[in-house]
Amino acid sequence: MARILITGCRGGIGLDAACRLLKRGHTVYATVHREASVDHVRNVVRPYGDNAVIDTLDITKASDINKVDSWDIDVLINNAAIGDSGPLAEIDLDKVKAVCETNVFAALRLTQKAIPKLIAKGKGRIIFIGSMAGTVPTPFYAPYGITKFALENVAFSLRTELKPFGIKVIIINPGAYNTGFNETWMPRKYAWMGAQSLYRDHMAYVRQQDEMIRKRELRSTASIARQVVKAVEDRWPKRRYVAPRWEWAFLPLVRRFG
């Protein structure tokens, strides 16, 4: 059984995967951004076994990342992420930087902290939760999509760099799931896109893009959480796991005509 650190376990894919891995006998460090979420997660995972450690881990804070020094882990699952939205033609670059800081730089910083521990073991796995948004154009959601594109390179580069140490690096690409995540960050652009926006006469088109994503969202995270379990347990893990498969099958068309 493996000892697994998962970031961003307040809900959605992270919490679903944590429950499934606990049920299968693994030890899971299920971490959350804020102290207020600890009791909620503890209550959710309790029926799935006693091998859970629930703690806060703000991946943007060095003091929190240092907690990894005291944890014995075999697998790191980089799941924590934030999002933002708006047209690249006018979005405040500080908003883009904030998403990049959390989704790319903080995730890489945490990974760098974990790597020496895995090297010392001579084995281990690092899993990045990417997105379908990291493989196709993401109009009006590029602040998020940019970071997932970057993680594609991070994962593929680390895979080769860490091969001599016996560490497997994997990326998982979820499609659209109704976890509440999209519903939180997709509307943010409307807070500043007003009468002065370049798109003031095209807001119906912007809202149409929102609706297209909402229509694709799956209610259950089961299909992608199962892929996380496979990425942890497969004897010979694949470089990439995806779900839902039908959405992945349509990606070549989206790339060509998007």
Could you explain how this protein is built, in words?
The longest helix has 29 residues, at 93-121. Helices cover 45% and strands 14% of the residues. It has helices at 12-23, 38-45, 62-65, 93-121, 142-161, 181-185, 203-216, 222-233, 245-249, 251-257; strands at residues 3-6, 27-32, 52-56, 75-78, 124-129, 167-174, 240-243. α1 (12-23) links the parallel β1 and β2. The protein contains ten helices and seven strands. The N and C termini lie far apart (43 Å). The protein is of the alpha/beta class and 258 residues long. The radius of gyration is 18 Å and the shape is globular. It has a seven-stranded parallel β-sheet with strand order 3-2-1-4-5-6-7, with helices on both faces.
Spell out the blueprint of helices and strands.
Elements: E1 3-6, H1 12-23, E2 27-32, H2 38-45, E3 52-56, H3 62-65, E4 75-78, H4 93-121, E5 124-129, H5 142-161, E6 167-174, H6 181-185, H7 203-216, H8 222-233, E7 240-243, H9 245-249, H10 251-257
Parallel strand pairs: 1-2, 1-4, 2-3, 4-5, 5-6, 6-7
Rounded to an integer in angstroms, the radius of gyration calculated over CA atoms is 18 Å
Secondary-structure-based class equals alpha/beta
Strand order of the largest sheet: 3-2-1-4-5-6-7
- What fraction, in percent, of the residue positions are helical? 40-55%
The top-level CATH class is Alpha Beta
- Beta-strand content estimate: 5-15%
Dominant shape: globular
Q: CATH topology, what is it called? A: Rossmann fold
Helical run tally: 10
Biggest sheet architecture:
7 strands, parallel
Oligomer type:
single chain
- Compute the average pLDDT: 94
CATH architecture: 3-Layer(aba) Sandwich
